[in-house]
Specification:
CATH class: Alpha Beta
Largest sheet: 6 strands, parallel
Distance between the termini: 43 Å
Helix content: 25-40%
Number of strands: 8
Bound molecules: magnesium ion
Low-confidence stretches: none
Mean pLDDT: 94
Order of helices and strands: HEEEHEHEHEHEHEH
Structural class: alpha/beta
Shape: globular
CATH architecture: 3-Layer(aba) Sandwich
Strand order of the largest sheet: 5-4-1-6-7-8
Oligomer: single chain
Radius of gyration: 15 Å
Length: about 180
């Protein structure tokens, strides 16, 4: 019998996130100078930081490149930040090999076609509520929240709760 997503969550040691449409709502704000700005969610950030501090592997793989995003993610304690990635599958394979991670231990959250192939390689492919239909079709869990609006928070919290690692007492710094 196929395992439920809750059962698979017991084995997760590693969270991998796409950025646009997952850690952001997919919108970009373009200034007159052509600079592109994104918004990110503080509650998502809190959960990402909690996961890092609790010893989970946290990795971000994005086709886009934005140095501001890198700074933000570094400040949350994330060290594995892959921006401007042409081939997510290749980056994923290198990452799990480097840390000796098994695919069954990986939760990957993506929202669109560039995530399709890599999501088929992981134990727990998940997506935000507003992901593309193709991605929803291959996800083992669809968040009740949208990308950039708490979807990452929801799945991190669920995994950590299943493993009794979610606690209210982190250092309280949210940014
Ligand atoms: Mg995306």
């Amino acid at each position: 019998m196929a395992r439920s997503y809750k059962e698979i969550m017991n084995d997760i040691t590693t969270f991998i996130f796409d950025i646009d449409g997952v850690l952001t709502d997919g919108s970009v704000f373009v200034t007159n100078e052509g600079e592109i700005l994104r918004t990110m969610n503080i509650r998502d950030g809190y959960a990402l930081k909690a996961a890092v501090e609790s010893g989970y592997n946290v990795c971000v793989i994005s086709g886009g490149s934005n140095e501001g995003v890198r700074v933000r993610l570094r400040n949350l304690g994330i060290t594995d930040i892959h921006l401007g990635t042409p081939d997510k599958v290749e980056t994923y394979k290198e990452y799990i090999e480097l840390y000796n991670i098994q695919p069954e231990q990986v939760m990957y959250m993506g929202d669109d076609i560039p995530d399709y192939h890599v999501m088929q390689l992981v134990g727990l492919p998940v997506c935000p509520q507003d992901a593309s239909p193709e991605i929803k079709a291959i996800s083992k869990y669809i968040s009740h929240k949208k990308g950039g609006k708490g979807a990452a928070r929801e799945v991190i919290e669920q995994v950590m709760k299943v493993q009794d690692k979610w606690t209210l007492y982190f250092d309280g710094k949210l940014d």
